[in-house]
Design brief:
The protein is mostly helical. It is globular, with a radius of gyration of 29 Å.
Length: about 350
């Protein structure tokens, strides 16, 4: 997918670039591109202001420390040292209608972007890339430890950002960073792996949400296994429905004999027929965790034989033990630890 961007000089030529037989459409596309350029310019300016807020906090904190020294009092307590940050975040949060913590996070990211990747910020301000591209570059490149590596990464990432969609840019930026400094990428992966966890959140109407943070290959394999099992159950249910013996030759429901003659016999998979793939996937997930078998999905006989499948691409040099070969790539996710 080609990402269309333009700076001020390019916008006037968009119509000629497209050269369609529909002039009104050409003008519309040119206007949209111009609007996106102006939006990018304003967004980049906001990021610069949020980065300036970090400098404001640093200056205010330094002033408080200096005043404490002049008074001969003890060094600032941590709570007092954090006061400028809390004050700035509170004021900005009220103005932006955002939480204090959300503002602090945005200040930190903006400072990182403008100081470590100034060319990316400039390209964003010129409308050459979108906000999603800029943040993808900054977040992926944050693991790099030297200015030389960051400069090399930024050059390659900006070239990619001018032709890639934001969704593809995230994976591409991570892959570029992992190739430039494999050790830094491995360290980041190991730190993230140490944070793996399972959390439970209450929802309304008798529901709850279970969230698991896992290494990407394991998470993708689990999801693939659940999806494959769920599809097998749904497909078999559809087959059972086509040959439903609970109906007579005319398609009318069969009725039980004897004392329960008024009882309508329904297919054993009637409930399953009404389940969506997402619902079956959730049912299988619960069954497997609680019983180690898809017990409530009676129509899914033979599900134990199903194996999860994921696609991982590992460069030949990496397989040979050379980290310069680049990272292993998990399809649909991006770079992972080749180990």
């Amino acid at each position: 997918m080609m990402h269309v961007s333009a700076n001020r000089e390019d916008v006037a030529d968009i119509g000629r670039m497209l050269d369609t037989p529909w002039p009104a459409l050409d003008r519309l596309v040119a206007d949209v591109v111009d609007a996106r350029r102006r939006i990018a310019e304003v967004q980049a300016e906001e990021a610069r202001l949020l980065a300036d807020a970090v400098g404001l906090v640093a200056d205010r904190t330094a002033l408080l420390r200096q005043e404490a020294q002049q008074r001969g009092s003890s060094p600032l307590r941590s709570s007092d040292a954090d006061l400028p940050l809390r004050e700035v975040a509170l004021e900005l949060g009220m103005a932006m209608r955002a939480s204090d913590r959300g503002v602090q996070r945005r200040m930190s990211e903006a400072y990182l972007l403008t100081t470590l990747f100034p060319r990316t910020h400039a390209s964003w301000a010129d409308g050459e890339i979108d906000a999603s591209h800029a943040w993808a570059i900054a977040r992926a490149g944050a693991v790099l430890r030297t200015s030389e590596d960051r400069a090399r990464f930024e050059t390659l990432a900006l070239e990619t950002a001018r032709t890639e969609s934001p969704s593809r840019m995230t994976q591409a930026a991570k892959a570029i960073a992992a190739t430039i400094d494999p050790a830094a990428f491995d360290d980041a992966v190991h730190r993230a792996t140490d944070e793996r966890s399972v959390r439970l959140f209450d929802l309304d109407d008798g529901m709850a949400r279970l969230i698991a943070d896992l290494p990407a290959p394991i998470a993708y394999a689990i999801y693939d296994s659940l999806t494959t099992r769920a599809r097998t159950i749904v497909d078999r249910t559809d087959t059972d429905t086509d040959t439903d013996t609970s109906k007579d030759a005319c398609g009318e429901p069969r009725r039980a004999r004897g004392d329960d003659a008024d009882t309508v016999v329904t297919s054993r998979s009637a409930d399953a027929e009404r389940r969506t793939l997402a619902q079956v996937r959730a049912d299988v997930f619960g069954d497997l965790l609680l019983t180690a078998a898809p017990s409530t999905t009676a129509t899914g006989a033979g599900l134990d034989a199903i194996r999860a499948r994921i696609q991982v691409t590992v460069p030949a040099l990496t397989l040979a033990g050379d980290p310069a070969g680049g990272p292993a790539m998990l399809a649909g996710h991006g770079p992972i630890d080749p180990a």
